[in-house]
Write a structure and sequence with these properties.
This protein has helices spanning 6-11, 58-71, 83-98, and strands at 16-22, 31-37, 40-46, 74-80. The protein is built from three helices and four strands, in the order H-E-E-E-H-E-H. The protein has one domain.
């Protein structure tokens, strides 16, 4: 379970909150949060894989991601279920943007 306030936590790391997208009105704890930091976009997905009926609205999910991918130079998306996942996402995001994509993944 996620206990940290994600928006406040990321704002404390220099990110600007843009919007929250709820995918199902009857599932209040399944959402994506969108942030920006300079020329980068950060998307935090919380519980989006939770089983519901109907199953996850993939069209809305991809349309929203594409909107931000075209708006920013780079867009990073992380799935979180708890505080540890959020901490890992923050460290990974900051590492990726600090290296300006000079990481050799081969």
């Amino acid at each position: 379970m996620l206990y940290k306030d994600v928006i406040t936590t990321l704002e404390n790391h220099g990110c600007k909150f843009i919007e929250k997208v709820d995918y199902f009105a009857d599932v209040p704890d399944m959402y994506s949060l969108f942030f920006e930091l300079e020329k980068y976009c950060l998307i935090i997905d919380y519980n989006i894989c939770k089983i519901t009926n109907p199953i996850f609205n993939y069209a809305e999910y991809t349309n929203k991601q594409n909107e931000y991918m075209f708006k920013y130079n780079q867009c990073y998306r992380f799935y979180v279920e708890n505080d540890e996942d959020l901490d890992i996402a923050i460290v990974t995001f900051k590492t990726l943007i600090s290296t300006d994509n000079e990481i050799d993944i081969n």
